[in-house]
Amino acid sequence: TEQQRCDGYWHCPNGRDEINCTMCQKEEFPCSRNGVCYPRSDRCNYQNHCPNGSDEKNCFFCQPGNFHCKNNRCVFESWVCDSQDDCGDGSDEENCPVIVPTRVITAAVIGSLICGLLLVIALG
C-alpha cells in the first residue's frame, strides 16, 4: 500500500517499496507518509511539520525547557501548575503546591465611648 512505501521496511520481497525514497541525514527524521526530512529539533516541538502530524506523535522525550506529560505530549515548563490542563490528561496540574491567599485585616475604632463606636474593617 502507499502507506507502507518508504517507511523503512521491506514489504515487497525484493524491497521495491523502499526504492527511490528520500533518505534522511543522521540529524534528521522522516515524515512517516511523505518521506520528507526535517531537523530533529522540529520533532515534538508543538508544531506539525508532517502532513499527518507524525512528528508530534509518540513523543517519548521532550526538548529542553519542556514538560513531558503522562500521555507523551510535551508542553512548555511555564505551563505547568498554571491551573490549565495543557497536557489534555491533567498531568501538568498534578502535585502542584496549594497557595492559600492571605488577607490583611485592618480595623480602626472611630469615635468615642460616649457617642458610640464605629468599627471599620478593611480587607486588603
From TrEMBL:
This protein's GO CC annotations: endomembrane system; plasma membrane
Membrane topology: Single-pass membrane protein
Annotated organism of origin: Mustela putorius furo (European domestic ferret)
Any single biological process term in GO: vesicle-mediated transport
Name assigned to this protein: Low density lipoprotein-related protein 12
Transmembrane parts of this sequence: 104-123
InterPro entries named in the record: LDL_receptor-like_sf, LDLR, LDLR_class-A_CS, LDrepeatLR_classA_rpt
PANTHER family linked: LOW-DENSITY LIPOPROTEIN RECEPTOR-RELATED (PTHR24270), LOW-DENSITY LIPOPROTEIN RECEPTOR-RELATED PROTEIN 12 (PTHR24270:SF47)
Species classification: Eukaryota, Metazoa, Chordata, Craniata, Vertebrata
